[in-house]
Design goal:
Structural class: alpha+beta
Distance between the termini: 38 Å
Bound molecules: adenosine monophosphate, zinc ion
Strand content: 15-25%
Radius of gyration: 13 Å
CATH architecture: 2-Layer Sandwich
Largest sheet: 5 strands, antiparallel
Order of helices and strands: HEEEHHEE
Strand order of the largest sheet: 1-2-3-5-4
CATH topology: HIT family, subunit A
Shape: globular
Number of strands: 5
């Protein structure tokens, strides 16, 4: 059994509110939403972060972004922020690559 939280969600060992499920990508609502739409989009295969994923499988990185677009459309958002934290200092707490899809309210400037 893996101790990776998002691998465990992918494997169905932990519950999640799934909004999109494809061959290689799963999207589910963030447990602590920071906006009316706050979904995390993950590959079903484990990579620690977006840089590692893009180096290993750039097409899968593209699938994550495309999935984020579908999630936005499902929630009726024509404007979303896609965020991916790379490394603890940047705020990454779950070391399984994910895109945050944030929308439904005015989002401030970064920084
Ligand atoms: P990050 O801090 O960028 O690594 O993002 C991790 C995200 O995962 C945070 O926004 C958490 O709220 C979210 N999260 C943690 N546990 C769960 C869970 N069981 N289901 C859904 N989202 C989660
Ligand atoms: Zn994982």
């Amino acid at each position: 059994m893996t101790d990776c939280l998002f691998c465990r969600i992918v494997q169905g060992e932990l519950p999640a509110t799934v909004v999109l499920d494809t061959d290689r990508v799963l999207a589910f609502r963030d447990i602590s939403p920071q906006a009316p739409t706050h979904v995390v989009v993950v590959p079903k295969t484990h990579y620690d972060n977006a840089v590692e994923l893009a180096a290993a499988d750039p097409a899968l990185m593209g699938e994550l972004v495309a999935a984020a677009g579908q999630v936005a459309e499902t929630d009726g958002r024509d404007s979303v922020r896609l965020v991916t934290n790379v490394g603890a200092e940047a705020g990454q707490t779950v070391f399984h690559v994910h895109l945050h899809v944030l929308g439904g309210r005015a989002l401030g400037r970064l920084g």
